[in-house]
Inverse folding.
């Protein structure tokens, strides 16, 4: 699997909260974002079918 980079704009308050949650879960912010994205895609696919 190829690894790609993605830049996002995020306000400071939301970023601070992301870091808080990631720290609580013992993860990096990057790992936390990947988990949130995977969870969102899984939820979408459960409702709408698999994305190909």
């Amino acid at each position: 699997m190829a690894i790609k980079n993605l830049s996002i704009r995020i306000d400071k308050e939301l970023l601070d909260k992301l870091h808080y949650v990631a720290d609580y879960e013992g993860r990096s912010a990057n790992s936390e974002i990947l988990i949130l994205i995977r969870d969102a895609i899984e939820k979408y696919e459960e409702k709408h079918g698999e994305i190909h």
User: Anything to note?
Assistant: Residues 29-48 form the longest helix (20 residues).
